Structures are given as structure tokens and as C-alpha cells.
């Protein structure tokens, strides 16, 4: 190893050691306290420092951060301490501290979302949260539900189950990959509503394309028809800068916390507007909780409570970075690579071009290659990990950078796309 490379190696080790602590993170952030988010988004040296706070693999370029994002090292260190502390006293913790600590995590999440703690529960993931509502409503034969072809498959399956069980009718529409306006999307949903429509499910951010939908406008329109709105916010929460009030008073909102908030795997949340709680049947019975108390939906038995505690650590890290900075960087990274390939005739982008209609996530295909073929060659030949999406009208690979992604990694991805699109 040369003297120069040794020096670089030691500097890298020192930076990683510093950023893996809360104090090191605060010191780095203090240096950019007054830098505007849009400017900081392009400041590569700063984000390379932030990357040092994450245990990023060196085996491949990770561009599939949408399924489950890395927890930062300070969060993981705290999480492991929670596990050890709880294990050391076992049942004593479960019987004396468990519920108070979970309530604190719930309260902090509610503050982040902008709702009352009495309207939010901690779940395991978005699927559990949304299915709690879909399966908990009192359906009757002939009731109708509206959703999009691009919605997550697990929830569509849950609606199909209600059709088998209760005789409801599911109406599925298809979203344009490149909408011309918000009005086009609102109109698309409105045309699907009938006098029998009971519930409309809509993605805040479509998971397979990254398209951001105009939730406030859709919610306000749907409510005029007397229909309830269920929002799938799996990818929007902690990626986009918003509060619940910005979404037009939706009835239900769900998200996964191990995606963009960065908790350890296995945490989600469900918001149910206070006046809607009584109308949802719980998945598991709990006679100790009143029917209008959201805790009735959270009776899950014994589970890994250290994950609930780590939510507080993830929120701490998330707020240190700042949602404005985070959103600006994620949108910049997506535009950094998509703008370079957008006009290649053999490269197909399934994500809207308007900057406000997407953030970190985008979907790309190459003419003549199936999504599976493209994902395979990217990993086998270029060591770039993506995920194949083959769900017409969306065919391509989903590309999801995170704050620890570098522009050098995206340069390698762009180079690979251009070589493959010859």
C-alpha cells in the first residue's frame, strides 16, 4: 500500500468513526447550518461525510433502497443496546416499561406526521397498516372500492379477499406514467366513483415509478362524494417534507418506517382519523380497550419491542439531517441520473419529467430488454443492484438512491445504461 493510499485509508477510517457517533454527526452538520438545502444537495463532500454514518456495502452499488433502507450506525448502535438492556431484565421490562416506552415512540411519530398520538399506532409495515383498514371496515355486498393498477399488490390482494368474503366490487384504474396535470389525475379517480363507492385507496408516491400524486386535491374531491380515502404513504413519509394537514384531511394514512425514516427492519405506522376509529374492527380482540380507542387496533401480543424504541433513535437521526435537506438531496440524485438518459431513444423512463412529480425513486427500461434481463445484467456485469418491475404499463427496473448514494455511483449506472442501450 502506498503512502498516499495509506493516508487516504486512515482519513476514511477516521471519518467513519466520527460519523458513527451522534457527536460526530452534529459536528459535521454544524458546518453547514446556514447552507440552503438546494445548495447543499449538490455539495458532494458533505454527503460523502454523511455516507460515513451508514454501513454501506462495498460488494455492489446499492440502488434498491426502496424495499428497506439502511439504518444509520448510531441508530443501529442504540438498537443493539435496547436489545441487550431489555434482554437483561426480560419480563420485568415487558411488564413495567414496555407500554410507556411505546407510547413515547408513538407520540414522537405523531408529531412528525402532524396528528394526535391518539390517532396513530405502530405496526410492522405498510401492508399490515393498510390491511388493518381494508379488512376492518364493515363491508356489505355491492359496496365498491377504487384503486389503481399501480398500487401495491398485497393491498390489491386484500381487496380481492373482501370481494370473496363480503361480495364487494373492486374498480381498478390505470395511472398515466406521464400525467399532463393534477386535474388529469383527479378526474381519473373521480370518473371511477359511483353511488356505491365506499373507499378509495391512493398512493402518495407510487412505489414502482416514484410518481407523486396530488393527494390533497384527490382527497378533497373524494370527500365531496361522501367517500373515505385510504392513503398508501409507504415511500412518502420521511422522504417528502409534509404534514398530514397538507393532504386534505385524509381518513387513513399508512407507512413503513424501515424505508425512509431508517428504523431497523419491521416497523410501520397507521393513522386513523379520530372519528373513524370506532368503525374499524380490530384484527385481534382486546376487551380492555374501548371501541373508540385506536389502541384496539394494536393488540398484537408479544413482539420485538426494541424496534419500537429504535424508532426514537431513527427520528433523532432523521431530524438531525433535516427533511428539507433530505428531500432536496434525494430529488437531486434522481434528477442527476435521469436527466442524463432521458432523451436517449432506446432508454424508457417511466417516471414523470416534472421535478415536483417525483423525488428519489425512478423507473427505467431499455428497448429490447425485459425488466428481469436488465436487472440481471446490471448486477452480473456492472455490480449494480436494482429491482425488476414487470407490471404493464410499467416495465423497467426501479432505481432508488438514498442520502448515502454518491454521484460517482450514479455515473457508473448511467454509463451502464448507455452501454446497454446501443
Description:
- There is one protein chain.
- The protein is of the alpha/beta class and 422 residues long.
- The chain has 2 domains: 20-71 and 323-421, Alpha-Beta Complex (Aspartate Aminotransferase, domain 1); 76-317, 3-Layer(aba) Sandwich (Aspartate Aminotransferase, domain 2), CATH 3.40.640.10.
- Helices cover 44% and strands 14% of the residues.
- The strands form 3 sheets. It has a 7-stranded mixed sheet, with helices on both faces.
- Helix 8 packs parallel to helix 9, helix 10 packs parallel to helix 11 and helix 13 (323-341) runs parallel beside helix 15.
- The two termini are 39 Å apart.
- The model has no long low-confidence stretch (mean pLDDT 95).
- Keywords: Lyase, Pyridoxal phosphate.
- It comes from Spirosoma fluviale.
CATH overall fold name of the largest domain: Aspartate Aminotransferase, domain 2
Note poorly predicted spans: none
Structural class: alpha/beta
- Number of continuous helical runs: 15
User: In CATH's first tier, which class of the largest domain applies?
Assistant: Alpha Beta
Evaluate the radius of gyration: 22 Å
Q: Give the CATH architecture of the largest domain.
A: 3-Layer(aba) Sandwich
Q: CATH superfamily of the largest domain, please?
A: Type I PLP-dependent aspartate aminotransferase-like (Major domain)
Largest sheet: 7 strands, mixed
Shape: globular
Distance between the termini: 39 Å
Tell me the strand percentage band: 5-15%
Number of domains: 2
Q: What is the mean pLDDT?
A: 95
GO molecular function: lyase activity
Keywords: Lyase, Pyridoxal phosphate
Organism: Spirosoma fluviale
Domain Aminotransferase class V: 73-384
Amino acid at each position: 500500500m502506498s503512502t498516499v493510499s495509506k493516508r487516504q485509508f486512515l482519513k476514511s477510517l477516521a471519518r467513519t468513526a466520527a460519523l458513527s457517533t451522534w457527536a460526530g454527526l452534529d459536528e459535521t452538520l454544524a458546518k453547514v447550518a446556514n447552507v440552503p438545502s438546494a445548495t447543499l444537495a449538490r455539495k458532494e463532500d458533505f454527503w460523502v461525510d454523511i455516507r460515513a454514518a451508514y454501513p454501506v456495502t462495498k460488494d455492489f452499488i446499492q440502488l434498491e433502497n426502496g424495499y428497506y433502507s439502511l439504518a444509520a450506525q448510531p441508530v443501529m448502535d442504540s438498537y443493539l443496546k435496547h436489545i441487550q438492556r431489555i434482554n437483561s431484565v426480560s419480563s420485568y421490562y415487558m411488564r413495567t416499561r414496555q407500554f410507556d416506552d411505546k407510547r413515547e415512540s408513538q407520540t414522537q411519530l405523531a408529531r412528525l406526521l402532524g396528528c394526535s398520538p391518539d390517532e396513530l399506532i405502530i405496526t410492522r409495515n405498510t401492508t399490515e397498516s393498510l390491511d388493518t383498514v381494508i379488512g376492518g371496515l364493515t363491508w356489505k355486498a355491492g359496496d365498491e372500492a377504487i384503486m389503481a393498477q399501480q398500487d401495491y399488490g398485497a393491498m390489491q390482494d386484500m381487496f380481492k379477499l373482501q370481494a370473496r368474503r363480503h361480495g364487494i366490487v373492486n374498480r381498478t384504474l390505470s395511472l398515466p406514467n406521464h400525467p399532463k396535470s393534477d386535474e388529469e389525475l383527479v378526474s381519473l379517480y373521480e370518473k371511477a366513483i359511483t353511488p356505491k363507492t365506499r373507499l378509495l385507496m391512493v398512493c402518495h408516491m407510487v412505489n414502482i415509478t416514484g410518481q407523486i400524486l396530488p393527494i390533497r386535491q384527490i382527497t378533497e374531491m373524494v370527500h365531496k362524494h361522501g367517500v373515505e380515502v385510504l392513503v398508501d404513504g409507504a415511500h412518502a413519509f420521511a422522504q417528502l417534507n409534509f404534514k398530514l394537514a397538507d393532504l386534505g384531511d385524509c381518513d387513513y394514512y399508512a407507512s413503513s418506517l424501515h424505508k425512509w425514516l431508517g428504523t431497523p427492519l419491521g416497523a410501520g405506522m397507521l393513522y386513523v382519523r379520530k372519528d373513524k376509529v370506532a368503525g374499524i374492527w380490530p384484527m385481534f380482540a382486546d376487551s380492555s380497550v374501548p371501541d373508540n380507542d385506536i389502541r384496539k387496533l394494536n393488540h398484537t401480543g408479544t413482539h420485538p419491542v426494541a424496534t419500537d424504541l429504535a424508532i426514537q433513535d431513527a427520528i433523532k437521526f432523521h431530524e438531525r439531517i433535516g427533511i428539507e435537506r433530505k428531500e432536496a438531496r434525494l430529488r437531486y440524485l434522481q434528477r442527476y441520473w435521469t436527466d442524463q438518459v432521458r432523451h436517449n431513444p432506446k432508454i424508457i423512463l417511466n417516471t414523470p419529467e416534472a421535478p415536483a412529480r417525483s423525488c428519489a425513486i425512478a423507473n427505467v427500461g431499455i428497448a429490447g430488454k425485459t425488466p428481469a434481463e436488465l436487472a440481471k445484467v446490471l448486477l452480473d456485469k456492472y455490480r449494480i443492484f436494482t429491482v425488476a418491475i414487470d407490471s404493464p404499463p410499467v416495465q423497467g427496473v426501479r432505481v432508488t438512491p438514498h442520502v448515502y448514494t454518491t454521484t460517482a455511483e450514479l455515473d457508473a449506472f448511467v454509463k451502464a445504461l448507455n452501454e446497454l442501450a446501443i
